[in-house]
Amino acid sequence: MIFIGLDDTDTLDSRGTGHLARQIAAALSHEHTILGVTRHQLLVDARVPYTKNNSASAILVQAAASAVTNGAALADLAEQVKTLMLADFYPGSDPGLCVAAGVPSAIVEFGRRAQQELVTQVRARELALTDGIFLEGLGGSQDGIIGALAAVGLAASGEDGRYVLVERSRELAGLLPVSAVLDAGIAAVQTTDGQPVNEGLVQCDKLRPARRGGRAVAVVERAAPDGRSGGAHWLPLKLD
């Protein structure tokens, strides 16, 4: 898998990093298999400049083994994404881009630290250079490289964030049976304590499954039955 990390550190008037990531994923889907787009929450602190939530995004791309080990192929993909990001650049934003395959544990740890404490551009660049990972600031202060690298690490961990796009997840709406959720490309529906949910209806409006075990998992809690449910009625949770 190839991980593309984006952090646009957008302005109040721009479309946001998640929207940008979905647009880029759509453009890449003509040539690549997109496994999903994930959102990762970073540190919320007055010392960190951000507009709303301080989140970063990752695009998950399925690639042949030869492409993963081919530095030229990764460089070409990075250049393609860079071009798309610059074409949608907003003055005042500080976008960063990271592209990596075979993400080492040090990058995963950097992502976790970025959720708990202040981390720096200097450290991000050091790690990227050590591990031969593409990391580049595309404008402004270039602070976006911090979130971009963190998003790659957190997505690669398989245990963080939530999918803002996976297969047909964004087409789901209203109360639908669990089978319809699974058919849309979500790997599993389960309760907060990990118990599988195999029947009943799920409220699917703005369903955002969590990335857990490297899969898209809809984590739900039971709601009060109503006349439409015919049994269990489940409400999805938005987990970070």
Characterization of this structure:
The chain is built from 7 helices and 12 strands. It is of the alpha+beta class and 240 residues long. It folds into 2 domains: 161 residues, Alpha-Beta Plaits (2-Layer Sandwich); 70 residues, no CATH class. The strands form 2 sheets. The protein has a 6-stranded antiparallel beta sheet, with helices on both faces. Strands 7, 8, 9, 10, 11 and 12 form a 6-stranded mixed beta sheet that branches. Helix 4 crosses helix 6.
Q: Key features?
A:
Alpha-Beta Plaits, 6-stranded mixed beta sheet, 240 residues, alpha+beta, 6-stranded antiparallel beta sheet, single chain
In short:
31% of the residues lie in helices and 26% in strands. The protein is of the alpha+beta class. The model has no long low-confidence stretch (mean pLDDT 89).
Percent strand: 25-35%
Question: Main β-sheet, in a few words?
Answer: 6 strands, antiparallel
**CATH topology assignment of the largest domain:** Alpha-Beta Plaits
Alpha-carbon Rg, integer: 18 Å
Number of helices: 7
Series of secondary-structure elements, N-terminal to C-terminal = EHEEHHEHHEHEEHEEEEE
Number of strands: 12
Give start-end ranges of low-pLDDT stretches.
Answer: none
- Give me the side-by-side strand order of the main sheet: 5-4-1-3-2-6
| Spatial gap, N to C terminus | 21 Å
Level-2 CATH architecture of the largest domain: 2-Layer Sandwich
Helix content: 25-40%
The averaged pLDDT comes out at 89
Shape: globular
Tell me the name of the CATH class of the largest domain.
Answer: Alpha Beta
Estimate nothing, just give the exact number of structural domains. Answer: 2
The secondary-structure class comes to alpha+beta
